[in-house]
């Protein structure tokens, strides 16, 4: 990457774009709603069960002008979900400001492990044990989405729920490879602890991106 491109990436005027697509949100509070997904490359959180490990190396994904991405969104949707990878590795200020100028709602899905940036209509925080969120990200969370891979993850979920604001919606989501076993445990847990809701990866059941 040449210096000029690196400067643009550092400012968020370009982003390492892995893929972009229009689909149905499959998880969390906005399940079932149409949205344009922007997946940026780069992540060092290192979840062993990650289903998009090809996103981890940002160098594999070409720096793309944020203005171009915004123009693509305008053709399809009035809601964007920026995900990764880990989107907060990059400045989200420029792209979210320009999306909102075009009356496009901005949602993010993040581990919260990097500094907060961007202007968000919805902030979905999904903490990981390997690299915990920064304090500033807990305060921003509209939605806490905890991935349940094993029984100890319920304790971790409660620890993280204690750090977010009262308004934050709380979701437990089974990790896909353990969905049969863990969904049963999550159902039982939510019935005993009704502050939580269940999130499922419905897009995978629907066989859509």
TrEMBL record:
It catalyses: 6-carboxy-5,6,7,8-tetrahydropterin + H(+) = 7-carboxy-7-carbaguanine + NH4(+). Substrate binds at residues 24-26, 39, 83, 209. Gene3D superfamilies: Aldolase class I. GO terms for biological process: tRNA queuosine(34) biosynthetic process. Its cofactor is Mg(2+); [4Fe-4S] cluster; S-adenosyl-L-methionine. One of its GO terms (molecular function) is carbon-nitrogen lyase activity. This is 7-carboxy-7-deazaguanine synthase. It comes from Polaribacter reichenbachii.
């Amino acid at each position: 990457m040449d210096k000029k491109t690196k400067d643009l990436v550092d400012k968020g005027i370009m982003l390492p774009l892995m893929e972009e697509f229009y689909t149905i949100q499959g998880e969390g509070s906005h399940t079932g709603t149409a949205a344009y997904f922007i997946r940026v490359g780069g992540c060092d959180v290192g979840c062993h069960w990650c289903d998009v490990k090809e996103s981890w190396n940002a160098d594999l994904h070409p720096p793309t002008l944020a203005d171009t991405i915004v123009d693509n969104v305008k053709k399809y949707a009035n809601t964007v979900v920026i995900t990764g990878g880990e989107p907060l590795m990059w400045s989200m200020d420029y792209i979210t400001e320009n999306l909102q100028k075009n009356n496009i709602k901005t949602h993010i899905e993040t581990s919260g492990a990097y500094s907060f940036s961007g202007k968000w209509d919805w902030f979905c925080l999904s903490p990981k044990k390997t690299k915990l969120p920064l304090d500033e990200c807990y305060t921003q969370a509209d939605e806490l989405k905890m991935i349940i891979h094993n029984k100890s993850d319920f304790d971790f979920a409660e620890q993280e729920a204690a750090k977010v604001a009262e308004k934050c919606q709380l979701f437990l989501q089974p990790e896909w490879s353990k969905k049969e076993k863990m969904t049963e445990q999550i159902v039982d847990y939510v019935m005993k602890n009704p502050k939580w809701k269940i999130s499922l990866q419905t897009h995978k059941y629907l066989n859509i991106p």
